[in-house]
TrEMBL record:
Organism of provenance: Halorubrum salipaludis
Active site residues per record: 272
Transmembrane spans: none
Protein name: UDP-glucose 6-dehydrogenase
Keyword tags: NAD, Oxidoreductase
Magnesium found in the keyword field: no
Domain UDP-glucose/GDP-mannose dehydrogenase C-terminal per the UniProt entry, residue ranges: 324-423
Binding site for substrate: 160-163, 216, 261-265, 269, 331
Top-level lineage group: Archaea
Length: 434
């Protein structure tokens, strides 16, 4: 099929490259000329495992030609289905900001005015229930002068890929959710996903657009709340001197609980969980419902960085101390600093009079935009050298093998927020939740 993908962020680019790999003819539309040139040169505009190869295979000079990028929305006219993969940031009150989606829908609608035959538009961005039906479809209708269900169809297909494993998550989904209020749109979505579904043998969930939108929020909110619950339990374990990881391993054997997302520690960050949980809370409150468990999940998550710093303060006088912070990215395998737990940890250390030397294998450059007055070290060993204390914020594998580096600390006190370093003699070691 001929597909247009609007937006070249980490979802849009991944989806475009993967669909090209599955045999579709894909054009990726973005307003950023630099990104468009990068893709057309055969390079990935973001760092994602396996993405470079896919973009080179299909957009590069030696490629199949099934992937190209452009800034021109008119490219939509030569395609059958358009996926909207634009960002949905949050307003100051946590609610969803649909303005970028609305602007994209408006450009798309203008182009659809000139499309003589049927077209299907699929919302892939994470949007609160009702957005596709109540906000996006009316804009498409107004700008195109056409009626949804007659000249074009609208669907919703949420994306569950994680940063760092986006390509493999897309190509090996545990489910494909197709939401549509229109039979023809649904049939087009089935056709687009057929090569993926048959290759990955993935179950397909067919539903309406509102339910598809809610499935995405429920998925992310459930996982975020699961981590907050294990953090709450981990904090209780800590009070009793119990190893919460031993407890988590045991309860994870119960199929009803499951072993994943039971790693307690300094909490969840990133571009999705904090934003999506805030958006569904705001949407629920707007409907007059108080989502008590989700509010508690946020409260536990907000508390964990402070608990980490309090634990360190039990051993080190923070005022005037130099503290090594190991890890800055919101999780290993990415340089993304958005909502990283490192930010509140470092700000809290600084507020209590400490100076910070931080190290991360890839996120240092991005960290400069989020943090002030931090010294960045070239290695974990360099950050630890002479430090009065250390905290681990991101579970990079390399921190598991630091061994002797702790011997060069002025005062070998380490608080591990991710259970990654090996407990050893000669350091004062505290796990945040165990
Ligand atoms: C998440 C969802 O997993 C994905 O399906 C969705 O499409 C986007 O949001 P991502 O933000 O890339 O993906 O990261 P993820 O691997 O889910 O981790 C999120 C946060 O939770 C990280 O800060 C991580 O450190 C933390 N986490 C994860 C824990 O603290 N404990 C765990 O057991 C797992």
């Amino acid at each position: 099929m001929r597909l247009s993908i609007i937006g070249s962020g980490y979802v849009g680019t991944t989806v475009a490259a993967c669909f090209a790999d599955l045999g579709h003819e894909v054009v990726n539309i973005d307003i950023d000329e630099g990104i468009v040139e990068t893709i057309n040169a055969g390079d990935a505009p973001i760092h994602e495992e396996g993405l470079d190869e896919l973009v080179a295979d299909h957009a590069g000079p030696e490629g199949t030609g099934r992937l190209r990028a452009t800034t021109d929305y008119a490219a939509v006219l030569d395609t059958d289905v358009t996926f909207l993969c634009l960002p949905t940031p949050q307003n100051d009150d946590g609610s969803i900001d649909l303005s970028i989606m609305e602007a994209g829908a408006s450009h798309l609608g203008e182009v659809l005015a000139d499309k003589p035959d049927w077209h299907t538009v699929v919302v892939k961005s994470t949007v609160v229930p009702g957005s596709t039906e109540d906000a996006i479809t009316p804009i498409l209708e107004a700008e195109s002068g056409k009626t949804a269900g007659e000249a074009f169809g609208v669907g919703m297909n949420p994306e569950f890929l994680r940063e760092g494993t986006a390509v493999s998550d897309f190509l090996n989904p545990d489910k494909v959710v197709l939401g549509a209020d229109d039979e023809r749109a649904l049939a087009d979505m089935h056709e687009v996903f057929e090569p993926l579904v048959s290759r990955a043998d993935a179950p397909v969930v067919e539903t309406d657009t509102r339910t598809a939108e809610m499935i995405k929020y429920a998925n992310n909110a459930f996982l975020a709340a699961k981590i907050s619950l294990i953090n709450d339990l981990g904090n209780i374990c800590k009070e009793f001197g119990i190893d919460s990881y031993e407890v988590a391993d045991a309860i994870g054997l119960d199929d009803r609980i499951g072993e994943q997302f039971l790693r307690s520690g300094v909490g969840w960050g990133g571009s999705c969980f904090p934003k999506d949980v805030a958006a569904i809370i705001a949407a629920a409150e707007e409907q007059g419902y108080d989502p008590a468990v989700l509010n508690a999940a946020v409260a536990v998550n907000d508390r964990q960085p402070g608990r980490l710093v309090d634990l360190l303060a039990d051993h080190v006088a923070l005022d005037g101390a130099r503290i090594a912070v190991l890890g800055l990215a919101f999780k290993p395998g990415t340089d993304d600093m958005r909502n990283s737990r490192a930010i509140p940890v470092i700000e809290s250390l600084q507020a209590r009079g400490a100076t910070v030397t931080a190290y991360d294998p890839v996120a240092t450059e991005n960290a400069r935009d989020y943090l002030d007055d931090v010294t960045y070290a070239d290695s974990a060993a360099a950050a630890l050298d002479g430090a009065d204390g250390a905290v681990v914020v991101t579970d990079w594998d390399e921190f598991a093998a630091l061994d002797d580096a702790f011997d060069n600390m002025a005062d070998p006190v380490v608080v591990d927020g991710r259970r990654i370093i090996e407990r050893r003699d000669g350091i004062t070691y505290e796990g945040l939740t165990w």
